Amino acid sequence: MTSATAGGVTPTPPAGRTRKSVTGTRRTVAVLFLLPALVLLGALVVYPIGYSLIRSFFNQTGDGFAGVDNYKALFTDDGIRTALKNNVIWVVFAPTISTALGLVFAVLTERIRWGTAFKLVIFMPMAISMLAAGIIFRLVYDQDPEKGVANAVWVGVHDTFAESSAFPKAHPGRESPLRADNGGFITRQPVRAGDPVTLPLVGVAPDQLPDSAKKAVAATSEPGKVTGTAWQDFTRGKGVGKLNGVDGSEVGYAGMKVEAVKDGKVVDSTTVRDDGTFTLSDQADGALLRLPAGNFREPYNGVNWLGPSLVTPAVIGSYVWMWAGFAMVLIAAGLASVPRELMEAARVDGASEWQVFRRVTVPLLAPVLAVVAVTLMINVLKVFDLVFIIPPGSSQDDANVLALELYRKGFAEDQPGVASAIAVFLLLLVIPVMLFNVRRLRREVRR
Q: Which residue has the higher pLDDT, 244 or 181?
């Protein structure tokens, strides 16, 4: 039997014979080859999904029907509600920032000679596992500036503009002429010109004194001026040294600020010399001498990146570090297919580079940007490793996400029914985004 076609006559296969595919392979043979993959797919994907769906309707032990109680827990349990809120933050910010950075990197690397090397460096974090990245950023965000890179940079910038004090632990000793005053210290009695003043303090470790500090010297009297000494009133060795008196082995508080205060106003100020001595003008006569609180400011230790308020943005930052390179590579591939004639035409018409980028490049890349953003949205809905590793135990509850809560409910708290409900809920969240991505890809193929 034959059938007519536009190019001639095509034989029709006899009845009962299996038709071949376009590649020439019988469908039964194709099915046999696909069967192992289908079995694995069923065992590793279909069966777990079906079992989780059924298990989500049973109680903790699995022998009693719980109805929708496990699904009610998704909106009443505080831990799950926190995880749901954090997932919303992840879905909104992580894909957006990663895609935006990927777009910027892809556009900029076209303008530089070493663009390939730059792309390699940006994409390199993709070769690192989530576990390794979590360990790296746990160290990056360490509170101690000597360990954590983030706080080392932050403290360096802060101390450039507001240097911390060298005397954070200093305080008056016994029978001191000083008393506390708003974080600093002030003399109990007004001072007089011509009478040297002593401002003894204790509490600073010898190795933490300024490098410029020298042996303290008792101030000498100067007519019409207020002189004095501010020093570490402590001598090593039991019974050695004179209380509130300058001894030969004691060190001056070099750089400490001294203010003369009358009626609540500062009338004069000075800085202590390396040997602990200082001099004020005649305006300080009859004033109280104050050591302001700035002398005793605690060293700045940076930001608590992994505290309750910043832990989620900090973990999102580590995710962006890993996935911005992925976005850049896909966007760069799309950018390579953009007609250069359109950009050149816009420049000839007088458009600036920013206008070309905003009104030509971005609209032409819109389909690619959508695919990248949606793919990352699916990815962040399942994020687990980074949230499990980076936050310390004290703030892990504040950084919680649905995937981590699923693990905690299923294994740490022994609530498999609730864990299964979270798994089904996650699947329902992913499916619409996944279908949107598939439809967009098919639409692009048809074009």
A: 181
